[in-house]
Specification:
- There is one protein chain.
- With about 375 residues, the protein is of the alpha+beta class.
- The strands form 2 sheets. It has a 6-stranded antiparallel beta sheet with strand order 1-2-11-10-7-8. Strands 3-4-5-6-9 form a 5-stranded antiparallel beta sheet, with helices on one face.
- A hairpin with a 2-residue loop joins β3 and β4.
- α3 runs parallel beside α5, α4 runs antiparallel to α5 and α6 packs antiparallel against α7.
- It is elongated and about 90 Å long.
- It starts with about 25 loop residues before the first helix and ends in a 5-residue tail after the last strand.
């Protein structure tokens, strides 16, 4: 199960095994279904007597094409279905029963017209949804700019994967920057969706960037974030109108070259530390804490945990869109068990593998947004 080298890809970007021809994907087979249905209708027309009908085959073909193909392909499929039905009733001598054959042909013709209308409506809906997603992605990029690939000697990679089933913008966030105290980063998730969640994420990221430069400890940074959310909640007459709370994990990699990592977790999924030998460790906080923005419920002194961060090791942060991704049986994705024992050449390869693995687990896109951040410590000279 170790992957030290990426497998080759075909012209469509799909991975294929060496020495084997690429297999047709399920999507390609489904796209061929209208043609198969028309062929099946013709076969029924040849092999059955006049008392049987091939109309269901010819009706199904354009309806399926309407949801999968362009308007031109749907029109060609509809025309082929109508002509196929006319040929079938003629071949079997069903024209002797004029009323029955005319009703069959009329039914196929009406269904073909319906398929053309459905295709046009679906294409308009797809175009509108694509426009909304483009706007959402542009807003997300403005909130979460791509971090540099190299920062203070560390290799860095980040991803934001939106849920395709919902074009609304989410509140997942990340930020990483070099400060006088070392490289500091945050990964978080604002409760809720929409522009209010994005606005809350902007406030958290903005407060983090300022506090990361000025505060000497992660505990002080967390305190600044807490106060920023309190101020905004008070300005809007209550936290409930401001999405309520934000789960977040803060981390610091000191600038003095020591193999030390400090992590402060406020109710967020625990980051993972992956070593060069395939080992993996969950960085579970020693003392669990509530998310940011819940100081009115309970207050306690923040406490960061310190751990060994060896050379070449990878540090992975993610939001709950990863851990709450489910398969068809309702089983949650387990990143620790899926990644344990695997080796990755760098943070980009790790995030690419994670995104693909979650997609395989869910059978498509995740139901929730995912924000991912990976950092690798350089090898010693």
């Amino acid at each position: 199960m170790l992957q030290d080298e990426a497998p080759p890809k075909d012209d469509g970007g799909r991975q294929v095994r060496r020495g084997r021809r690429p297999k047709l994907s399920g999507r390609h087979l489904v796209r061929r279904l209208p043609a198969l249905l028309i062929a099946g209708g013709l076969a029924v027309g040849i092999a059955t007597p006049a008392g049987y009908t091939a109309a269901p085959f010819f009706c199904a073909a354009p309806l399926i094409a309407a949801s999968l193909s362009s308007l031109r392909s749907t029109a060609l499929t509809a025309l082929a279905a109508v002509l196929g039905e006319i040929w079938a009733v003629t071949y079997r001598g069903a024209l002797e029963d004029y009323q029955e054959s005319a009703a069959e042909s009329a039914m196929v013709f009406v269904v073909a017209l319906l398929a053309l209308g459905l295709n046009r409506f679906a294409r308009r809906s797809d175009a509108h949804l694509a426009s909304v997603r483009d706007i959402s992605e542009a807003a997300q990029r403005a909130v979460l700019p791509t971090p540099p690939e190299q920062l203070a000697g560390l290799a860095v990679a980040a991803r934001y994967v939106g849920a395709r089933a919902d074009a609304r913008i989410g509140g997942d966030l990340y930020a990483v920057q070099d400060t006088p105290h070392g490289v500091r980063l945050i990964v978080g998730d604002v409760r809720g969706k929409g522009l209010e969640a994005v606005e809350a994420a902007v406030i958290v990221v903005g407060a983090f960037r300022e506090a990361a430069e000025q505060e000497t400890t992660l505990e002080a940074v967390a305190g600044r974030l807490e106060r920023a959310l309190q101020r905004e909640g008070g300005r809007r007459a209550g936290l409930d109108q401001f999405e309520g709370f934000t789960t977040a994990v803060l981390a610091e990699i000191p600038a003095n070259g020591q193999s030390v990592l400090r992590v402060l977790n406020r109710g967020h999924p625990s980051p993972l530390l992956l070593t060069l030998d395939g080992g993996l460790r969950e960085l579970v906080p020693a003392v669990p804490a509530l998310p940011l923005g819940m100081s009115e419920v309970a207050s306690w002194p923040d406490r960061s945990d310190e751990t060994f961060f060896p050379a070449g090791a990878l540090l992975l942060f993610f939001t709950d869109g990863v851990t709450e991704a489910r398969d068809l049986l309702g089983r949650f994705y387990q990143p620790a068990s899926r990644l344990r024992g695997r080796r990755f050449p760098g943070p980009d390869a790790l995030l690419d593998t994670l995104v693909e693995d979650v997609a395989r687990h869910t059978g498509g896109a995740p139901a929730d947004d995912m924000a991912l951040l990976a950092v690798q410590r350089p090898m010693r000279a």
